[in-house]
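Quick review question:
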């Protein structure tokens, strides 16, 4: 497994929906595959590489680390069912939405509805 690090390049003009960007999913992909994953920027799809610099390090377990100000990035860890997400900065709305297992640690503020409909896991 590995640690995937996503560093924000610059603040997006619109809100970004990061649902589906989960550690266990990304751990099976190569860097180019991760960079090509699409997320919603407003109502337009956008490749992760447009928003983030992608780094990878060997590590035991599935870990996804975000670095930078993610206040306009919503649904981080939505439907998380394992692995670990660490955020060095603030996050947008719905962090941990419908989370079932795993952990999310945010070293900053969180937007609205943090942990909404959580059924398990840990959100700090």
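Suggested answer, residue by residue:
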């Amino acid at each position: 497994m590995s640690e995937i690090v996503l560093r924000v390049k610059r603040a997006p003009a619109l809100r970004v929906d990061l649902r589906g960007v989960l550690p266990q999913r990304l751990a099976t992909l190569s860097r180019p595959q991760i960079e090509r994953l699409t997320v919603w920027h407003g109502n337009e799809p956008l490749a992760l590489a447009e928003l983030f610099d992608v780094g990878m390090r060997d590590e035991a377990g599935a870990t996804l680390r975000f670095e930078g100000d993610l206040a306009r990035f919503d649904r981080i860890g939505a439907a998380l069912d394992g692995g670990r997400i660490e955020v060095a900065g603030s996050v947008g709305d719905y962090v941990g939405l419908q989370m079932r297992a795993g952990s999310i640690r945010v070293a900053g503020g969180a937007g609205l509805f943090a942990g909404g409909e959580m059924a398990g896991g840990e959100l700090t």
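Why it works: Helices lie at 23-26, 31-36, 48-51. The first helix runs from residue 23 to 26.
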